[in-house]
Specification:
alpha+beta, Nucleoside Triphosphate Pyrophosphohydrolase, 7 helices
Amino acid sequence: MMVIRTALGFTGGRLDRADHLRRDEAAMRMARLHPAARFLVLDQLKPLLAPDGDALLWVRRSDAPDGTTVFLGLDDAGAPHFAVDGPAHGLEGVATDARAAGARLPGAEAAIVAQARSLLDWHRRHRFCANCGAPTSMAKAGWSRSCGACGAEHFPRVDPVVIMLAERDGMVLVGRQKGFPPGFYSALAGFVEAGESLEEAVARELWEEAGIRVGGVRYVASQPWPFPSSLMLGAVAHADGFALRLDETEIEAARWADRDEVAAVLRGAGPWSAPPPLAIAHTLLRCFVDG
């Protein structure tokens, strides 16, 4: 496994998620009323940042809007922290796109953005039981939903996605989709399918999208990607050859690049542009350059 020398975007959270408190409704009521309790407002899933844009804006319970409220955890001093899905009217903060917020905030606060956005988005999209279709209600301080009709319990889902570089003889494969900005290339990626390992998903996606066979899949690192609830699983695989056969419905163009070219791209001086440091694709490219 490669050694990651830089922090991955949306990781590094320091809140104690305190699972033992989630089932205790009395404890959660007390936590909401605690004088040190703080609430992060997400207006249309955009977290509020302080006016200078360099920190999350935490508000007291009295200033938080009405809306779906989930328990995030306890800080080092034991103060409860929550996230609220509601309007930011009257608050000093600036509702900021979560990607932009993740790029600007320190790692621990960016991780809170990922946690809060994924969880609140899940509640928005799972108000009815997948088993019987009846309305569900929030439970366990926001970490599950219960169906009063059939008794089913539903938990926030996480969708595994493999994102990978194929490498051969000091070269790596990057590609672009039609919706990418001009000149933008990234690592190839795809969802892990049912009954499939990470390694099998990497091999299948590279075959389907680029027409190359690979072996020797190496796991690198993972990253939450809260759009809405993916877990990006970074990997590198050894390609059997350089010849490509692109699935043009998925990949508009692809190219092999050596270390000097990728290093130049990461400096902003190459023939194409790469994902920003927030994205794990950037980390994979950096690991390749670092050898």
